[in-house]
Amino acid sequence: MKRLVAIACLLALAGCGLPLPGGVKTRGGVVGVQQKPRDIRVLPPGPRDKASAVQEVRDFFGAQSSPDDRHASARAFLAPGLQQTWDDTSPVSVFSNDLRVKPGSGPGIVQVSADVVGRIGNDGSYRLDRVPFAATVRATRTSTGRWVLTSVPDGLLLSTADRDRSFRPRNVYFLAAPTGQPPAPSHLVADPVFVPVTADPADALVRRLLAGPSSLLGNSVSTAFPARTTLEKPVDSAASGLVTVDLSDQVRSAPPSVKERISAQLVWTLKGIPTFSKLRLRSGGKDVALGSTDSAALQDRNDWDSYNPDRLPDRAPAYYLSGRRLLSLDEDAAGVPKSGRIARPPIDLAAASPDGQRLAVVTRTATGAELRTGAIDGEAFTLRQRGPQLSFLSWGSGEQGVWFLMGNRVMLAPDAGPPHEVPVENGARFGPITGLRVSRDGARVGLIAGTGSSASLLVGRITFDRGAPRIVGLRPVAPDVHAVLDLAWDSATSLVVLGTQAKLAAAIRVAVDGSSVALVVRVTLVGAALQSIAAAPGRPLVVGALVDRQPPLVGQQPALFRDNGQFYAGEGPGYAPFYPG
């Protein structure tokens, strides 16, 4: 891959979702102030007296983009009895390209087909699901001559543009799952879900939180809410930004540490709502005191930063290698000598823990490679692993140790004890594993499977059985991206990969659930062969590439480029950039 090419458009992608879980109980109370969506609504056309059956069917599916009043616009096309029984709460199917509608084998019979690219489950999670959709719709003429639909499939069938008008992506936050080994995780994990634009966002998110993690996270997370915790009344959202959550009395009797974690889950979940400012938590009809002082009645949207799922301090430094030494693009980076050299082994690959305290390095030797770990500002490094090929160092949350590839095997070097292989459930079906990065919350893993043009991006989750990790739930999340070279987590819910999409070699941002894939649009990097990428929350992308030497020199040399929001600015010689994590 020789260059990044400037392109003129962005891929506009968003999420979609489902109505709220029915298993969350509410009892009594007054519905809180509804936070009305600010979107400009375009009402779809209603039934028309002179329209054909085919046109009425096409308009029925188009009207499903309007969620108001239980999809009243779509129900208007249905016969009176079907208006009451049509189920619009079944999983949503999202299709690409055009909806195909054509006459069937008889009067009033219409065939509908589409290319489904994804589905949103009842838990709000999005899954890629490339399957053909086909349905037979039946219609009959009324006494006025208008066609009404008498048989239609349940659920919603939306184009990718229609889903953006009907649903909004949100994050619900759970606790990292206990590993069975100290220290216990004390941070959160984001669970992307999608809720209707017509729902009060605070009420919707709290209900999702109480319903438990989506199927895409499963037992890779935990929750602080006691079993059978329910809402006593709908969540109240005041115009001031104060959100009041009234829960059943299990919370009031919980230990202070549990109340703190409950508060952290709620605050982080609600802070996705721009108008949210403070949380009042109530249990059994009384205010719940939260925090270590056991006296705080209100929680601010900026509280509980220690539970940050991205696990990085502000202004995390960008590291890189040059001349087999560790350097940084940022001033005052830990582990980088101000003058002279730290007496470390030669470094060919490196990774820093999220807290910036530990460093893992790989040194290539005449017979293979060696992995060592140590303090980032120290000189004494402990040999952890020898192998013919060691690559893709990743600390993840830093709580399990350092992850790496040995050949095509996923390995983990814990802080104590020898390195060991981590089983990858169903990994063989996708081809050899050639790349690895663990998310900074420690719950997910991004993998590159395959080689050359067939190398693709997978995302799985990490579970623990009596302290032993496993990678499960592997799924492709960017099937149209090929020849993936490198990957990095730029947030708890998205990755950036170097790959090829539509014959364009570029940096590509991918949502962890596959609900969006977007080229990072920047000005051309002329004559650059992409090699590696570094990403972190709130920090600029850094790309490592091979560039042509200046004449009269020939050949190529490694160089770094940092994203400034408009183009990749040259940062000089260097290779293998990385942020902590």
Characterization of this structure:
The chain is mainly beta and 581 residues long. It is globular. The chain is 10% helix and 41% strand. The two termini are 27 Å apart.
A few lines on this structure:
By secondary structure, the protein is mostly beta strands. It is built from 6 helices and 36 strands. The chain has a 5-stranded mixed beta sheet.
**Number of H- or I-type helical stretches:** 6
Low-confidence segments, given as residue ranges, are 1-38
The N- and C-terminal alpha carbons lie at a distance of 27 Å
Helix content: under 10%
User: How many strands in all?
Assistant: 36
What integer value in Å does the Rg equal?
Answer: 26 Å
Estimate the mean pLDDT confidence.
Answer: 89
Topology (elements, then pairings):
Blueprint (H helix, E strand, L loop, with lengths): L52 H11 L4 H8 L4 H6 L6 E12 L5 E12 L5 E16 L5 E5 L4 E4 H7 E10 L11 E9 L4 H11 L9 E2 L13 E2 L4 E6 L8 H15 L7 E6 L2 E2 L10 E3 L18 E4 L2 E4 L20 E4 L5 E8 L2 E8 L6 E6 L2 E5 L7 E5 L2 E5 L6 E2 L11 E6 L5 E6 L6 E10 L2 E9 L4 E11 L2 E8 L2 E8 L5 E3 L9 E8 L2 E10 L7 E8 L4 E6 L1 E4 L3
Parallel strand pairs: 1-5, 10-11
Antiparallel strand pairs: 1-2, 2-3, 3-4, 6-7, 6-8, 9-10, 11-12, 11-13, 14-15, 14-36, 16-17, 17-18, 18-19, 20-21, 21-22, 22-23, 24-25, 25-26, 26-27, 28-29, 29-30, 30-31, 32-33, 33-34, 34-35
Helix pairs in contact: 1-2, 5-6
